[in-house]
Specification:
Layout (H helix, E strand, L loop, with lengths): L1 H15 L7 H11 L4 H23 L4 H26 L6 E2 L2 E6 L3 E7 L12 E9 L2 E8 L6 E8 L9 E4 L4 E7 L18 E2 L4 H4 L1 H58 L1
Parallel strand pairs: 1-6, 2-9
Antiparallel strand pairs: 2-3, 3-8, 4-5, 5-6, 7-8
This protein binds 2-acetamido-2-deoxy-beta-D-glucopyranose.
């Protein structure tokens, strides 16, 4: 506590020193005389820009011990090191979290429109100050990447979609409102797609807001999806039917087998004892 108070006094004394004022040297000597000189004081003086004055004092009057200077240098170096590590944490691409942006998609026969929201969830607020947007189509995969340094933390966004069908390499895209962007993709073959991605686990929501703007093609797409759902439901029903039929057929055979093995065992006992 006492040390803290002493240091606070030194701090305020140093704060009152003017870098270019008159009689700096005398004031510095006074501060050094009044306070027990330690690393912290010297470090503080150096960080406030009095480094050259201190070097002069060492050269002329030798009132500052070399060892004090050495330890001040060490602690300043430690500060720099910490700063560097902190900086590395924010810029090291292996270290920070990569978020998949949220997308919605709609289509006409000729185009696919994708709305990208740089957020954790569809209903979460989008990141602000999103920059370095990169849209690429390579090896049949569409990749969307960007980054944000919101709150001084570097957040990376990355999403790669193996597209169901081929598209034109030149993708028209623009940043929309805060933290969102829209892609306008041209299909190579004019037809509706059932899914956006080849990967069955990719479930992207449909951008129904564009239904009116796009018109008939979105109606057809909607029907396509409904039919697909019906088809899947029917398929599941039929599978269940087949399975239950198989079980019914299996049950008697199991019973028969059980009966048969029991009979065999009985026969063995009988032959043993009689
Ligand atoms: C997308 O691009 C096509 C041209 O390729 C254009 O006709 C269409 O209006 C665009 N859609 C939007 C929503 O910008």
């Amino acid at each position: 506590m006492i040390i803290f108070t002493l240091f606070t006094i030194i701090q305020s004394q140093i704060a009152q020193l003017s870098l270019y004022g008159e009689g700096i040297r005398e004031q510095l000597v006074q501060i050094i005389d009044e306070n027990q000189l330690d690393c912290q004081t010297i470090q503080l003086l150096i960080t406030r820009g009095f480094g050259q004055h201190i070097l002069d004092l060492i050269a002329d009057e030798q009132i500052i011990l070399e060892s004090h200077l050495q330890c001040a240098k060490q602690s300043i170096q430690n500060d720099l090191l910490q700063l560097q590590q902190l900086k590395n944490r924010f810029t090291n691409h292996d270290n920070h979290v990569i978020i998949k942006p949220i997308i919605l998609w709609a289509q006409s026969k000729a185009n696919i429109l994708i709305k990208v929201k740089f957020a954790h969830r569809i209903d979460a607020p989008a990141y602000i100050s999103v920059k370095n947007h990169q849209i690429q189509y390579l090896n049949h995969k569409l990749s969307i990447s960007a980054e944000s340094d919101q709150n001084n933390i570097l957040t990376q966004f990355f999403l790669e979609i193996p597209l169901l069908n081929d598209i034109d390499k030149t993708i028209d895209w623009q940043v929309e409102s805060v933290g969102t962007m829209v892609l306008n993709i041209t299909k190579l073959e004019s037809k509706l797609w059932l899914h956006l991605s080849k990967n069955k686990n990719d479930k992207f929501q449909i951008w129904w807001d564009l239904k009116e703007q796009i018109g008939q093609d979105m109606e057809d797409f909607s029907k396509l999806l409904e039919n697909q759902e019906d088809y899947l439901k029917n398929k599941k029903k039929q599978q269940k039917k087949i399975e239950s039929q198989q079980q019914q057929q299996q049950t008697p055979t199991i019973k028969q087998n059980l009966f048969f093995s029991l009979f065999l065992q009985l026969k063995q006992w009988v032959s043993k004892w009689f």
